[in-house]
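WARN retry 2 of 3 for item q-0093 after timeout on previous attempt; input resubmitted unchanged.
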Amino acid sequence: MTFECPDDLLKLQQDLNTVRSDLDTLIRSLPYSTEPADAWQRPDGYWLSTSPSFPDSPGWEEEEQEQVVMLREKERDLAAKIVTHRFWSEVTGPQRPDARSQLKHALGAEHGENQETEAA
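OK item q-0093 returned
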C-alpha cells in the first residue's frame, strides 16, 4: 500500500534528516571526550574493535557543547512533531509502520535515505 504523506510532514522529515546529519558531522569533528582527559590505552584483550589508544582530549568548548545541545533539542522537537502529526490519525494501527517507513524513504538518497547505515 502506498501512502500520500502531506507536504508539511515531508518537510518535517527533511528537516529532521538535515539536523541529524549536521549533528553527526559536528560530533565527529569534536574531541572524543566532552571533558578534558589524559591520553589512555585500552587493556589487552578488550572486546571492542575500535582504536586501542586515545590521545589527550582538550574536551569540548562551551560553544561546541551549546551547538550539540541545540541540535539535539531541534532533533527531539522535529521528531515529536512528526510522530504527533495529524496524518497518523488517518492511518490504521497495523499500517503505521509501513507508512512511517515510506515517509523516511520518500525523500530519496540525496535527502538522507540510508542515514543510519552511512553514519555507522
